Amino acid sequence: MILVTGATGQLGTAVVQNLLKKTSANQIAALVRDESKASALKDNGVDIRVGNYDDTASLDKAMQGIETVLLIAGTDEDNRIKQHQNVVDAAKKAGVECVAYTSRSLKDRNTLANKLMEGHFQTEDYIKECGLNYALFRNVLYMDTIPQFVGERVFDTGINLPTDQGRVPFALRSEMGEAIANALLESGCSNRIYKLTSCESYSFDNVAATLSDLSGKEVDYTPTEKSAFETQMKERGVPETMIERVTGFLTDIKNGQEEEVSPDMENLLGRKPASLKEGLKVLFNF
């Protein structure tokens, strides 16, 4: 049986939905914090287990009868590493055979501007050292984040970001969920690291050109300085911690941390992942 944690989140939902297409519901369990949000999963026959990453007793209970656990990265960035360790410890205690984890595809952990990303690699280290078989899914930035990066008024203001000509092989979250589900069912846990990216990397020049093509409106990309971008965010009332996080992501893009392209996702899907144009057409409802 496969246990998916964070199963009512966006990535967790995508994984479970794809598992349901290819295996029996009685082979799938879902760890959720709020059972009321899991009614659709329950209706589909998924075994609902209530708990959270801080509650070790609930984790111990959730791991019973589980062969593989997919640990979806937590969103509590201040406590995430300890929470992940709790899940791994519970899996090992219960005799789970495999721990899989949704990490991040980044080139060099030692030169990251966004220091919060280091937690993913510390989790990877802990999983590798725990003695269980593992699968690590290093996910590139979701294409789904592009609307947030470019802003609601992109067709009026264009794109103004401190990313220079940095490139990202953006991929849709839904296809990442499908690729992960396929890997769990077909490849199992053989101490593998998968880099889940699209087949081609894109700059925000490419994003602007694609939005221009799709909308029929001219969208320009103007690289800005980090300091000017931070000032603009402050003027809009964005909290300091959020400014730091956003600029960390964008600086890493500029520095090439996100640019690596891998065939792993195409191989797991059995087809090419959605292109930038195909993805933006869906995300912007063209």
From TrEMBL:
What is the top-level taxon of the source organism?
A: Bacteria
Matching SUPFAM superfamilies: NAD(P)-binding Rossmann-fold domains (SSF51735)
Record InterPro entries: NAD(P)-bd_dom_sf, NmrA-like, NmrA-type_oxidoreductase
Domain named NmrA-like is located at 2-248
**Annotated protein name in UniProt:** SDR family NAD(P)-dependent oxidoreductase
Q: Record the organism.
A: Brasilonema octagenarum UFV-OR1
